[in-house]
Amino acid sequence: MLSDRRARVLALLIEEYVSWALPVGSRTLTQRYRLGVSPATVRNELSFLEDEGYISQPHTSAGRVPTDRGYRAFVNDLIASGVLQESSASPALIQHLKNKALELDEKLELASSALSSFTDCLSVVYEPKADQSPIQQLTLVALSDIHIVAVVVTKNGKVLNKHIELSCECSAQELSELQERLNNILVGHTCNDFRESDLHILYERGIIRTSIEQQVLEAVLLCLHDEKTAPRSHRVGMSSLAKKPEFSDTASIVPLMQILENDTVLFQMLDHNQTQCTNTLQVSIGSENKQDALSGVSVVTGRYGSGDNAGVVAVIGPTRLDYSKVIKAVQSAIQALNDAQ
């Protein structure tokens, strides 16, 4: 536990380093801030922080830079102070999302773009899994006598399309009646509600009357089930991340990009962060990330929605992150997406 003075010296050093990406010396701190102590005292406090692993000195003649432990202490103090709850990072972002986005895809793309623009980092927003959201409406659109498109809208706003080649011709009247019957079966239920045994019961009881009904129902459920394993991501700001001075070396950026461009690995990591976290937000700093390639980045993760019908919002940047700004931005995006549902 750091004293108030040491915590303040650490916080000011981090703020300077976040702003300029250059090692910070005692002279910079004493000249720019009224610490109320002598330069010698500031040097002593920096020596203590270095000895305890909160900061390090890249070169003998250079100033100090924060370590992962220093960032962690800073973030913990930031959260404990309650300053992050005082105001939203961007009320305009919340209102923008409410007014502009109608469908889920549009909301999430807009949220990801706004987050990246606001934080100058990589933002990733994952949709809720479609198979876990109740079906709100099924619309069947005829392309020809035997080709139709099934448009499925889930309660969380996700829209899925499935092209189906029917086993026999279907008139406009028959298609309309088929749509009504399938809506009576599907609306209000999730894909997970229909196991193979449930479908057999529907067939045996005559609820599913024709082979076309069976074909379309199974196609719709398969379409929803296919969304189960890999929720779609909306990712903006990869180039912003790559331009950070920390990643100017190709050897450091390539392994990182390989993970960040792999949707399955990235979703598992972000989802795991939230599963392990009892708070609204999770902040993983540098070496706290399990993958070695992520040891140079910090990840701020949050969950919107509730229960199984939840998605993930994340901002990924260098450990030299403006944590207050990024955490508030993620909070704003979560609030906006929750309000818009």
Series of H and E elements: HHHEEHHHEEEEHHHEHHHEEEH
The average pLDDT is 86
CATH homology-level superfamily of the largest domain: GAF domain
- Stated plainly, the CATH topology of the largest domain is called Beta-Lactamase
Helix count from the secondary structure assignment: 13
The shape is elongated
Task: Report the strand count.
Answer: 10
Distance between the termini: 42 Å
Decide which structural class fits the backbone.
alpha+beta
**Sheet with the most strands: spatial strand order:** 7-3-10-9-8
Features:
341 residues, alpha+beta, Arc Repressor Mutant, subunit A, Beta-Lactamase, Enolase-like, domain 1, 3 domains, 5-stranded antiparallel β-sheet, 3-stranded antiparallel β-sheet, 10 strands, elongated
Give an overview in words.
- The protein has 341 residues and is an alpha+beta fold.
- The protein folds into 3 domains: 4-81, Winged helix-like DNA-binding domain superfamily/Winged helix DNA-binding domain (Arc Repressor Mutant, subunit A); 86-128 and 231-340, 2-Layer Sandwich (Beta-Lactamase), CATH 3.30.450; 131-226, Heat-inducible transcription repressor hrca homolog, domain 3 (Enolase-like, domain 1).
- Helix content is 48%, strand content 18%.
- The protein contains 13 helices and 10 strands.
- The chain has helices at 4-20, 26-32, 39-51, 68-81, 91-100, 104-119, 172-186, 196-204, 211-226, 238-242, 250-260, 263-275, 323-340; strands at residues 55-56, 65-66, 122-126, 135-142, 147-154, 159-165, 233-236, 281-285, 297-306, 309-318.
- Strands 7-3-10-9-8 form a 5-stranded antiparallel β-sheet, sandwiched between helices. The protein has a 3-stranded antiparallel β-sheet with strand order 4-5-6.
- Strand 4 (135-142) and strand 5 form a beta hairpin.
- Helix 2 crosses helix 3 (39-51).
- The longest helix has 18 residues, at 323-340.
- The protein starts with a helix and ends with a helix.
